[in-house]
Amino acid sequence: MTHTPLCTGPARYATAAVASAVLISGVHLFAATSAQADDKPSVPPGTEASAEPPVEVDSNAPGLKMAAGATLAEPKVLDIKQVVEDLGGEERREDTNADIKLALQAEVLFPKDSAKLSSAATARIQAIADEIKKQDANRVRVFGFTDNLGSSAHGDVLSKQRADAVHGVLTQALNDAGVTYEVRGYGEQYPIADNNSEEGRKKNRRVEVSFPRGETSQN
């Protein structure tokens, strides 16, 4: 028994179950088998038609009604956080309905591995003090953080020393005995970026100053 080829010339294709070939203007077109079609769905995953119709919901069902005498709770505004960071990541601001948090990278405040404030640091901290006055805040938190390089004990000490330095300038700038402070050094705890890159570690080396938002700013 002989088989007749589908086309002559150097390109020959057998009549297998894989594909059938049609020669049109010198171009071979192949129709995929059902096995190949299964490998490549005709629609993106998740957009296929559902095998079952959606479940109908009876709006009058007893389980969907409030119990007799029940009342709705008072409306509450969800706490939305807004984060703004400059292009270099040197300054970062987080706003919520209740609080403001301002963070400065350690590099803009201190020399490397030091807790001595740089000459440009005072102006940066003064700007934070002005924001505290604007919000009429009487509770201020000053927290220091480091990256994960070096020993954990060294990071704890350095971060606290840096927080103390910023706290000292804030105290002088605010000159308000009614303001209470919480000053801590957390070392490498609570990173805000990946410590596996220098860019991330740079963001983690920071001092954060947070305080309540004034009532007039919340309205």
Give a structural overview:
The chain has 5 helices and 8 strands. 25% of the residues lie in helices and 22% in strands. Strands 3-4-5-8-6-7 form a 6-stranded mixed beta sheet. Strand 4 and strand 5 form a beta hairpin. It has a domain of 137 residues: 60s Ribosomal Protein L30, Chain: A. The N terminus is likely disordered. With 219 residues, the protein is α+β, with helices and mostly antiparallel strands. It is elongated.
Fold topology:
Layout: E1 19-24, E2 27-32, H1 34-39, E3 82-85, E4 91-95, E5 99-105, H2 121-135, E6 139-145, H3 152-174, E7 180-185, H4 198-204, E8 206-212, H5 215-218
Parallel strand pairs: 6-7
Antiparallel strand pairs: 1-2, 3-4, 4-5, 5-8, 6-8
Class by alpha and beta content = alpha+beta
Give the helix proportion (percent range).
Answer: 25-40%
Order of strands, main sheet, comes to 3-4-5-8-6-7
Number of strands: 8
Which key phrases capture this entry?
single chain, 219 residues, alpha+beta, 60s Ribosomal Protein L30, Chain: A, 6-stranded mixed β-sheet, two-stranded antiparallel ribbon, 22% strand, elongated, disordered N terminus
Give a quick precis of the structure:
This protein has 219 residues and is an alpha+beta fold. Helices cover 25% and strands 22% of the residues.
